[in-house]
Amino acid sequence: QVQLVESGGGLVQPGGSLTLSCTASGGIGSFYSVAWYRQAPGEQRELVARTNNDGFTYYADSVKGRFIISRRNRQNVILLLMDIVKSEDTAVYYCNAESARTSSTTFWGQGTQVTVSS
Known about the structure:
The protein is mostly beta strands. It has strands at residues 4-7, 10-12, 18-24, 33-39, 46-52, 57-59, 67-72, 77-82, 91-98, 106-108, 112-116.
């Protein structure tokens, strides 16, 4: 059973940058996909970015050009590089991993709070 632990959240000013890290307790190299989701107060959890072993990377329209997802299989780390952050990026950010393309086991982290405010 792989555990995912996020870190790096906090308070950041609009226009600033922040890097979120997700450290896995086991190997993620064989996992089909890794992703970051977020959930703002009163809102549903939404997909922010995902990258999979097919070489495909997805970004939500709201973060395209500002966020980058990076998968470091050797270090068992998944990063979310956030740039030019906006107040609407305020949310709890969750790390996610899928073990396979079908019949997958899904893993979630506990979440890390990101607050964008001056």
